[in-house]
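[09:14] KT: can someone run the structure on this one? pasting the chain below
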Amino acid sequence: MNQKFLEVMQHEGPTTIITVNAQPASVVNTWSSYVEIKQADNYLLIPAAGMHSIENDFQTDNRVVLTMGSKEVPGTQGPGAGFHVYGTGEFIESGSEYDEMKAKFPWIRKILKVKIDDIVQKI
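[09:31] RB: done, structure tokens below
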């Protein structure tokens, strides 16, 4: 994770999660401020109140693409930086990571854990 990505994630904005191989693709949104970055272990934790379509798609393919950005961070062509995060996901409903996220977000039913394969700056 580079510094520009981490800077973008410090600003509020939508984070979109897409199951790219589902037919049709499932798309859900959350807020960047909800996403917990586990930099040392290269994964993200995302609270899930719904996300049933994403979870159902994982039965056949758990690859996801996430998009996030901020107009507050300079990008490649001027104001605004955006990223695509490629990875694999799993839903967790127990354990220490779940307990920590449930304490912050009491409305969740599970957490989406995304192991990052690649992060690409798009703008």
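[09:33] KT: thanks! The longest strand covers residues 79-92.
[09:34] RB: yep, looked fine to me
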